[in-house]
Each structure stands twice: as C-alpha cells, then as structure tokens.
Amino acid sequence: MSNVVEVVHFSLDSDCTEDDFLRTDEQMKQFLSQQAGLIHRSLSKRDDGSFLDIIYWQNMEAATSAQQSFYASDVCKLIGQLINIESVTIEHTSVCSTLGIN
Predict the structure, then answer these.
(1) What's the pLDDT band for 100 if we cut at 50, 70, 90?
(2) In Å, what is the CA distance from 40 to each residue of 17, 36, 99?
(3) 64 within a domain of the structure (yes/no)
(4) Fewest Cβ atoms closer than 10 Å to its Cβ: which of 6, 56, 58, 77?
(5) Exposed (0-12), middle (13-18) or buried (19+): which is 21, by Cβ within 10 Å?
(6) What's this model's pTM, rounded to 2 decimal places?
(7) Is residue 1's pLDDT more than 90?
(8) Are 69 and 76 in contact (CB under 8 A)?
(9) DSSP codes, 8-42
(10) Inter-residue contact 79 to 24 (CB < 8 Å)
C-alpha cells in the first residue's frame, strides 16, 4: 500500500479573519496529531487568499478514518463556521515518488 496525500482547498468565510482561523487551526493540529497514520501536515496560503491543507497519510484507510472522525468532531463544527463551505474541495492521491531533504 502506498502513502496517500490529502489536499483540501478552501477559502475563509467573508466574516472570518486569518488570525481567527489560525487560532482555530491550533485545535485542528491537536486533532490531527491524535489520528493514526498521520505522517505530515502543512497549511499554506495561496496568492488569491485561499488555503491548501496538505496531509500525508500512511494509507487510504488512515485518511478515511481520520476524515470520518473529523466530521464528527467539535473542531469540524468550529472550522465549518469559519470557512466558505462551497469553496471546499478534497482530493486524495497515491504517492508515486518522494524526496526528503534533511
């Protein structure tokens, strides 16, 4: 089984500031750190103001399990109030090749 990359693209709700979102993201990091199969996660901001949340999982089962746990979590409810739900796209891909530089 290959590792899986989850890419979530989203924009903030018009009433949400970046600072508000990043404070809530601390809770997201806490949630993710407790999920089995997590390898790495980064959150980045695009030039257009939208965000990319990129998460590496050990396999698709870990990604799916974490996603189901997320949807049932309090942090999901918090984040759902801060983002434009219609802007959200989620994609899962299998890792074909990697390079890590220490």
Answers:
(1) confident
(2) 25, 12, 14
(3) yes
(4) 77
(5) buried
(6) 0.91
(7) no
(8) no
(9) EEE-B-TT--HHHHHHHHHHHHHHHHTSTTEEEEE
(10) yes
Lookup result for tokens 């989850």 = 6
- Locate 35 and state its tokens: 């999920």
Domain housing 23: 4-89
Tokens matching residue 24: 């809530």
Q: Is residue 15 part of a domain?
A: yes
CA dihedral angle for residue 14, residue 23, residue 90, residue 41, rounded to 10 degrees: 150
Domain count of the chain?
1
- Burial (Cβ within 10 Å: 0-12, 13-18, ≥19) of residue 36: exposed
